[in-house]
Design a protein that fits this description.
By secondary structure, the protein is of the alpha+beta class. The protein has helices spanning 58-76, 95-103, 140-151, 160-166, 213-226, 242-250, and strands at 2-4, 18-22, 28-38, 48-56, 84-87, 111-118, 131-134, 173-179, 182-190, 196-204, 232-238, 254-261, 264-267.
Length: 268
């Protein structure tokens, strides 16, 4: 079998991070790529997050995985002091892939899960010196700026197309607390169900955490949704993310399903 790189970016990924596998007759058997995703906010203990994806016939999987692991060593060499992990996302029903990654030293101790929680009640109070306002989304520049802020705290980035689509949904809300025009915390909720919304993203700036800011912002958004007849919300969380798990427990959330498992190898 043979490995090669594309001549141009593949789905936005640089050519050096993409591998094609072909047999000796040059018939393509699969493609794989790796994406570096620095996550100092979401995973402060392991900020070096390297996502890999392999779409291949079984005969070429080991070759492509070896190429990705080799490329990961090159990428990691630029950040020798940082801890991190190499991970992928697969459906729990893909038993052959779960087995493939486990046999190659990956752990399956993390998963992307869906939870349902009742919209919280309480008193929403803006932090001292802050104002509560809708996120400005009138222009494309505003929208891209909002996406950029949200994506600092996400493993899977929100695209502009996704945001534009959600802005048309009945339950769409984009709200925040701002100090002198600068965001302290922001939340995005959406959905079209008459009684259930989706919490897509909420973040709080590092220096404002552990002060009830996030809970207050969620209560403020919940008050507005409740006026529309919404009583509960869906949210996705990661098993291995302790702060997320704590927040979900505090909301009385119940797990509905495992969306994807995240086989991974820890680095450092």
């Amino acid at each position: 079998m043979r490995l090669s790189h594309p001549n141009a970016p593949y789905q936005g990924v640089p050519p050096e991070d993409v591998f094609f596998a072909a047999n000796d007759q040059f018939v393509q058997l699969g493609v794989a790529y790796i994406i570096l995703n620095m996550q100092e906010e979401l995973y402060p203990d392991r900020p070096l997050q390297m996502y890999i994806d392999i779409q291949s016939q079984p005969t070429a999987r080991n070759l492509l995985l070896g190429a990705l692991l080799g490329r990961s060593e090159q990428i990691r060499a630029a950040f020798p002091q940082l801890k991190g992990r190499i991970y992928t996302e697969i459906a729990p029903s893909q038993f052959d892939l779960v087995s493939f990654y486990n046999q190659n030293g990956f752990q399956s101790k993390d998963a992307r899960e869906e939870y349902l929680f009742p919209l919280p009640l309480g008193n929403a109070q803006a932090p001292m010196g802050c104002e509560f306002a809708s996120v400005p989304l009138q222009t494309a520049q505003d929208q891209y700026a909002f996406i950029t802020r949200l994506n600092r705290y996400r493993l899977s980035p929100i695209s502009h197309d996704f945001l534009v689509l959600q802005m048309q949904q009945a339950n769409f809300l984009a709200l925040g607390y701002y100090r002198a025009g600068h965001p302290i915390a922001e939340i995005m909720m959406t959905g079209a169900s008459p009684d259930t919304a989706a919490l897509v993203m909420m973040y709080v700036q590092k220096d404002m955490r552990n002060r009830g800011v996030g809970k207050s912002l969620l209560v403020a958004a919940s008050d507005l949704l409740r006026q529309r007849g919404v009583t509960s919300a869906l949210v996705q969380g990661f098993t291995a993310n302790a702060p997320q798990a704590g927040m979900l427990r505090s909301l009385g959330a119940s797990r509905r399903r495992i969306i994807n498992v995240l086989p991974h190898i820890d680095l450092g």
